[in-house]
Specification:
This protein has 6 helices and 4 strands; from the N terminus they run ααααββααββ. With 149 residues, it is α+β, with helices and mostly antiparallel strands. The strands form 2 sheets. A two-stranded antiparallel sheet has the order 1-2. A two-stranded antiparallel ribbon has the order 3-4.
């Protein structure tokens, strides 16, 4: 297919990167998937500067990826937890893909810090690329980009 036929001005990859492509945003999402909910906990596990973390959380809320939920510890002022929305949950395969790539190409001697396992059977989890008919695809060489109507 001619490169000229594909309209890149509305590229979904570029649009997604504009929303979540910054390092701290992706790390916040990683922690949210691991169960972190509160600002102090995000700051503790990430080590992000307070201003940066505040900005990234606000941006993820503004984009509808996280939502703020009020909570109050007895004797303290009301605060907010950050919880994944459906839009946020749908980013999980993206984070798993980044993790698998990092494990494959950045881990020294196969020493990976964390492994994902299926809750029911305990087997390791891996992403798979399939078509709508259920065929497993080995990679980009089995995919043909076509313009959308």
């Amino acid at each position: 297919m001619s490169e000229l036929l594909l309209d890149r001005s509305r590229c979904s990859v570029a649009g997604t990167l504009a929303v979540v492509g910054e390092k701290w945003s992706l790390l916040v999402l990683r922690e949210a998937f691991l169960g972190v909910r509160r600002f102090a906990d995000f700051q503790r596990v990430l080590g992000a500067p307070k201003a940066v973390l505040t900005d990234r959380l606000a941006g993820l809320v503004e984009q509808g990826i996280l939502r703020r939920v009020p909570y109050q510890v007895e004797g303290e002022r009301q605060r907010h937890e950050y919880r994944l929305t459906r839009k946020g949950v749908d980013l999980y395969p993206t984070l798993v893909a980044l993790m698998e790539w990092g494990d494959r190409y950045l881990a020294e001697d196969g020493d990976v810090p964390m492994e994902l396992r299926h809750r029911d059977c305990g087997a390791p989890v891996h992403l798979a690329l399939t078509c709508e008919e259920g065929h497993a695809l080995a990679g980009a060489h089995e995919v043909r980009p076509v313009p959308r109507a």
